[in-house]
Amino acid sequence: xxxxxxxxxxxxxxxxxxxxxxxxxxxxxxxxxxxxxxxxxxxxxxxxxxxxxxxxxxxxxxxxxxxxxxxxxxxxxxxxxxxxxxxxxxxxxxxxxxxxxxxxxxxxxxxxxxxxxxxxxxxxxxxxxxxxxxxxxxxxxxxxxxxxxxxxxxxxxxxxxxxxxxxxxxxxxxxxxxxxxxxxxxxxxxxxxxxxxxxxxxxxxxxxxxxxxxxxxxxxxxxxxxxxxxxxxxxxxxxxxxxxxxxxxxxxxxxxxxxxxxxxxxxxxxxxxxxxxxxxxxxxxxxxxxxxxxxxxxxxx
Length: 301
What we know:
The chain is α+β, with helices and mostly antiparallel strands. It is built from 13 helices and 10 strands. The protein folds into 2 domains: 172 residues, Regulatory protein AraC (Jelly Rolls, Sandwich); 117 residues, Homeodomain-like (Arc Repressor Mutant, subunit A, Orthogonal Bundle), CATH 1.10.10.60.
C-alpha cells in the first residue's frame, strides 16, 4: 500500500547554493542530486525561482495546472507555490534563484509592480515562451550573471542585483505587464497598501478570512481596502482572500492524500462541512469532485 501523502515538502535555497546562499544561477544539469531527487515530487521553495527550459520537453505542474513545456520557456515561481517537474528526457536550461532579501520584491517602495508582477498576479505564476531574439537577450544576461558569480570582482553583488532587475524588466516586457498596468498603479501610497495587503494574505490566510481583519492590520477602513484592490487588480479584497484560501485547498487536494476534513483544519476552518460548502460555492465542485477531476486530468496529460 502506497504511503499516504500528508505534507508538501519545502526546499530552502542553501540546498542549491554552491557559494552564495542568497543568489544562485546554475545550469540545470549542474544542480546535482538535490534538484533531480525532487523530480516528480510535488514540493515548495522558500525562495523565488526562475526556470529557463532551453531544450527538451517535460511536464511542469504549478499548483494544480500542468503545462506541457517545450524549448525556450520561462517559469517564474514565488515562494510557497507547489510545483512538480516531470522529465521524460534530457533537458537543458538554467535555474535562477534568490531570497527575497536579495531583491526585496515585496517592498513596493524599492521595486516597481512590473518586476514583482511576474511572481504576484491573479494567475499566481507566469509562464513565458521566448522567440529567438528574446532568447538571445536572456542568454546574454544569464552568462553575465554566471561570470559575476565565478569571478567575484569588487561590487559583484551590486552587478548581480542590476542584472536580475534587468532580467525581470525584460520578462515583464515580454509578458506584457508594462502595457497592462494602469496609470493608477503608479500612485505609490495605494500601491504600497495593496502590496502589504497581499503579503499579509500570504502570512495570515490560515487564520484571517475577512476584509475587516486585514483592513484593521493596515489601519484603513474595509471599504477603502476594497476600493484600492478593485482599482489595482480588478477584483475586491474579499476575492483575493478567498482565492488564496481556495488555491491552498486545491494544492492539498491535488498533491496530497489528505481528506477534505484534514485540509479544512489545516486551513483554519473549525467546521469541515462549512469548508466543503465554501469550496463548492466558489469552484462549483466539492473537494472530492475537484480531487477526482484533477487527478483524472493529470493522468491524461
